[in-house]
Amino acid sequence: MPRTRMPLGLIALALGAFGIGLTEFVIMGLLPEVAGDFQVTEATAGWLISGYALAVVVGALGLTAATTKLPRKPVLLGLIVLFIIGNVLTATAVTYEMALLGRIIAALCHGAFFGVGSVVAAGLVAPERKAGAIAIMFTGLTAANVLGVPFGTFLGQQAGWRSTFWAISAIGVLAFVGIAFLVTISHEEQEEVHLRHELRAFRSGQVWLSLLVTVLAYGGMFGAFTYIAYTLTEVSGFASSAVPWLLVLFGAGLVVGNTVGGKLADKALDLTLFVFIVALVIVLIVFALFAASQIVTIIALVLMGGFGFGTVPGLQTRIMIYAGGAPTLASGANIGAFNVGNAIGAWAGGLGLAAGLGYTAPIWIGAGITVLAVVVMTIAWGNAHRSQFTTDSQSAGASATAASLAAAD
Description:
By secondary structure, the chain is mainly alpha-helical. The protein has 2 domains: 8-182, Growth Hormone, Chain: A (Up-down Bundle), CATH 1.20.1250.20; 201-390, MFS general substrate transporter like domains (Growth Hormone, Chain: A, Up-down Bundle), CATH 1.20.1250.20. It is built from 17 helices and no strands. It has helices spanning 9-38, 42-45, 47-66, 72-91, 96-107, 110-123, 130-159, 161-182, 195-198, 205-225, 228-235, 243-267, 269-289, 294-309, 312-322, 327-354, 361-408. The longest helix is centred in the last third of the chain and has 48 residues, at 361-408. It is globular. The N and C termini lie far apart (58 Å). Residues 393-408 have low confidence and may be disordered.
């Protein structure tokens, strides 16, 4: 019997994605409050972001591989429990180290939830509607950036930063209940991942270049964005109460950039990535130079979100293309690469602050990291073009030889 309506289970999955996205990004708007509470430096507080990102990498690869043969619904529920435990630990932390541990525990579920959840979402609908179902689930992540982060920051500023993590924990509980009662998986065939086959993808130089571009492009943007609350209040002169609403602008740029970048990448993948990354460099440089101007800052926030996140669909598509017939592990590695970039960007930006270079230092450092992404993308694009040219030439030569032999016969 065909399934014509979108099942409610997709809403439960989207709610889980919303909570996970909120956990990852809301800390950026609350970093000054957290640092003040634990009496640590801005750079030390930044490890609450870097530590999370690195733990996502471990969870994306380790937990996904470890749970491959297990029933998917219990796996999702277990991941949500891990998410709740991590956020409750963060909310109740009496020391900085305890808060960092909570962040790491919550992060372990991130990559595995999106990987397993995507498969489950696709299985809830008819085959011709799988892409739409997955898109609905990922709407939760987008909503977390556009709405959740600003309002989570506002809540944390008004009622204390711990209140935000209590609210996130409550979202986790709702997601658990929703998945338990609304997600139905009957007679599911478990697909085994053959690691030896999947590892073949990493023989491709283009896969490694793509991963490096992901790390550098995302790392450059997050080098600037991690400490954005300090830049907005200490350099641009905005009141701390304005930070949540300014983050809405960043989220709006994220949504538009992600949509436009995906459509353009379908038409010209490498060209789109190159243009977007170059544009991101320009935006970051202009932002760093004129951060004292509130008008320039507002425009830069929108464009930074747009060009930064506009690379995401193209980068994910690129690595899947060059992974050939073994895209599963390579795709997971790219999710990890995004978070390695997050960690490197936050760490490098923190070094600039610790060195006393001022609150625009993370933006300059982010621009420098993004320049490296442009260099690597240029190399990757050039190699791909040369490989395609060689392949076309060989094909043309083979066709000409075959034609000559046929004529001789």
